[in-house]
């Protein structure tokens, strides 16, 4: 991966983790039975993975022949 691709993916991970925590904080799961949103760590990690994958889709790969 290039340096630009790592930066873009890293930004996605950070923004996704923040979004995951904010989702936990504002929406969450009051009963505690939800697998993802019952704990802030789970929600943040899930958001980080989704954010990283989402922004990684916009990284152009070089064509090798």
UniProtKB/TrEMBL annotation:
It comes from the Bacteria. Pfam families: DUF6132. The chain crosses the membrane at residues 5-26, 41-59. InterPro entries: DUF6132. Keywords: Membrane, Transmembrane, Transmembrane helix. This is YtxH domain-containing protein. It comes from Flavobacterium alvei.
